[in-house]
Amino acid sequence: MNNSLPKSAGPAGLAGTASSRVFDNLRKDLVGGRFVAGEKLAINALKDRYQVGLSPLREALNKLAAYGLLVQENQRGFRVPKLSRDELDDIAQMRLEMEGMALERAIANGDSLWEADLLAAAHRLKRADITLDKGEEWEHLHTQFHRTLVAPCGSVWLLRFIEQLHDQFDRYRRLGPKMPTIRQELDEQHHQLVELALQRDAKMARELMDDHIHKSYEVALKRYQEHV
Amino acid sequence: MNNSLPKSAGPAGLAGTASSRVFDNLRKDLVGGRFVAGEKLAINALKDRYQVGLSPLREALNKLAAYGLLVQENQRGFRVPKLSRDELDDIAQMRLEMEGMALERAIANGDSLWEADLLAAAHRLKRADITLDKGEEWEHLHTQFHRTLVAPCGSVWLLRFIEQLHDQFDRYRRLGPKMPTIRQELDEQHHQLVELALQRDAKMARELMDDHIHKSYEVALKRYQEHV
DNA sequence: TTAGACAAGATAATCGATTTTTTAATCTAC
DNA sequence: GTAGATTAAAAAATCGATTATCTTGTCTAA
């Protein structure tokens, strides 16, 4: 028997350790808005919540702080970063620049395997949407779709930054309840993005991507403003 | 008495903890090339080297892994990331895009305080160069200069990514011994960058920045090729 | 020979307890 | 009353020891 099934999607292919498990779970919960922004984390409570000892928990918290999903202060532990309009604008602006760049490069580099992956990812996403999002399913497939879209951009660092920005952006977008109406419009764009990618129309694809991020930004902003 | 002196330049204003101290030191050493690329880190040896216990050491290693200066694998600890031509190209390319963008924005936003800071940073850097680099002095002032140059770009995330890319780039640039000849040429450009920034000539400044990064890239590439 | 099983040693990860520092509450002097 | 000192409780950071996993070398059976 071998360990071919990755049990964790942590930093790299880290599997199995308590630290990586709690990292994954905490990351999901932070991105999914299950903590209050600005909140101070009570480490002992987290120990219970994630069923893990102190050492692996602290290691996970340290990683998340370095990743930007937590802030760590002097000798007073960890807290969930505050949200701000300025930061949301910053994140959205950066997404525009970086995902636009990545998409153009991906369209230039992507091979036919990419085309297949893209179609598959879009299909899975659409199907999940019909069944109306049981749990985190749609979120995961959505992330996966955007990841696939830019995957062959040729820059490991660009992909890394984009991923990080997505996590940060989702802290805003996923405030409050779901909005199926707007989602439909955004889902429409996902398919148009695939179309344009397959046609290798980099210019139009980038414009659509800009629009897509703009629309998502408006959703996120609304959520943020309602949430305050 | 208060604690107005920051004792550490860690992730945020983290001061005092053993973890943050060892994080800073390890980061310096990794960026400065005092570890062999690809090397597996012997945690017990690090404990002695940095005079610190296992827990804070592991926390620092976890942070560095999330930051990208280490890689962490399954259940077999930490290692220093390998170097590769492809990655160097990627990093340099990303620096071109991001620092160019940041510089343009900084020139648009920077106030007169920035101008003063910039002149000061350039002066300190030049002076350190004359006294011929005692220890890490020049490196630190160099980092500081580039940081100051883009500081008022208005994007926290852009600054963060640039910082990260600098650390990665320096893993290549700082292989092997110093090269005073080329450094002189690069130092020249630092002053021209200040000139153009003060004149608010964004276009020329960006071109010069591109050239500056290109030249640095050539140095780094040479080092890398000699180092293999 | 050589692939696979096994055991011993080394290393990584985790635990439980201790030390240090912060926080909050109370007290005291003005 | 209020600023500052004092101290008890809480929380963070760290330590020392334990447990789990990997690695290496040796052996055995085909």
TrEMBL record, chains A, B:
Keywords: DNA-binding, Transcription, Transcription regulation. It comes from the Bacteria. InterPro entries: GntR_C, TF_FadR/GntR_C, Tscrpt_reg_HTH_GntR, WH-like_DNA-bd_sf, WH_DNA-bd_sf. One of its GO terms (molecular function) is DNA-binding transcription factor activity. The keyword DNA-binding applies. Pfam families: FCD, GntR. Residues 16-83 form the HTH gntR-type domain. This is FCD domain-containing protein. It comes from Vreelandella titanicae.
